[in-house]
Amino acid sequence: MKKIITLFLFIFSVGALVPGLALADIPPIPNPNPTPQCSNLYWIDNTNKTCESSKQFCGAYAYLGLQTFSNQQDCLNAANPKISYNFGTVTLRNGSRGEAVKELQRFLNQSVNWGLVVDGKLGPKTIEVIRTWQRDNGLVADGLVGAKTKAKMNASVQ
């Protein structure tokens, strides 16, 4: 390595003195492994979130955002992650506060997109959205987020 750096510095400094001599005139260092390593990999199509069939990838490729997997099951798991929300263990109701309420607000924004502010305060607007979600999902629309509503909410994102 020291010889290559010394040669580079020598050619670079000589090139500055000799017209027409450029770094492009330096022959490339031969690749010790001229045969690229190939692998059959599965990949996620980010457009439709599906796991695509095995394709041969050879050498070093860098694709922005491309996720590859050696087996189809890992690819399928990554393409369709299991999401669950932590709504806490107590029934959430008007006036509830905290992280469980923030999680509920994130869920509701994700599923019905009513633009709730994620502030951890369960107030009238959040109650209205909860009732709408409960009604649309066959539950009693009471605005309370108890065990049945929490279970149905988590089941809806699987």
Short description:
This protein is an alpha+beta fold.
Structure description:
With 158 residues, the chain is an alpha+beta fold. It folds into 3 domains: 1-30, no CATH class; 37-81; 99-156, PGBD-like superfamily/PGBD (Muramoyl-pentapeptide Carboxypeptidase, domain 1). The protein contains 5 helices and 3 strands. A hairpin with a 4-residue loop joins strand 1 and strand 2. The radius of gyration is 29 Å and the shape is elongated. The protein starts with a helix and ends with a helix. Mean pLDDT is 75; it is low at 1-24.
List keywords for this structure.
158 residues, alpha+beta, Muramoyl-pentapeptide Carboxypeptidase, domain 1, 3 domains, three-stranded antiparallel sheet, 39% helix, elongated
Number of domains: 3
Just name the CATH architecture of the largest domain.
Orthogonal Bundle
| N-to-C series of helices and strands | HEEEHHHH
What's the total helix number? 5
Lateral strand order in the biggest sheet:
2-1-3
Rounded average pLDDT: 75
Query: Ranges with pLDDT <50 over ≥5 residues?
Result: 1-24
Summing up helix and strand content along with how strands pair, one would put the structural category as: alpha+beta
* Total strand segments: 3
CATH superfamily of the largest domain: PGBD-like superfamily/PGBD
- Radius of gyration, whole Å: 29 Å
Strand portion, in percent?
A: 5-15%
Question: How far apart are the first and last residues' alpha carbons, in Å?
Answer: 54 Å
CATH class of the largest domain: Mainly Alpha
Amount of helix: 25-40%
What summary fits the major beta sheet? 3 strands, antiparallel
CATH topology of the largest domain: Muramoyl-pentapeptide Carboxypeptidase, domain 1
> Judging from the principal axes of the Cα atoms, what is the shape?
elongated
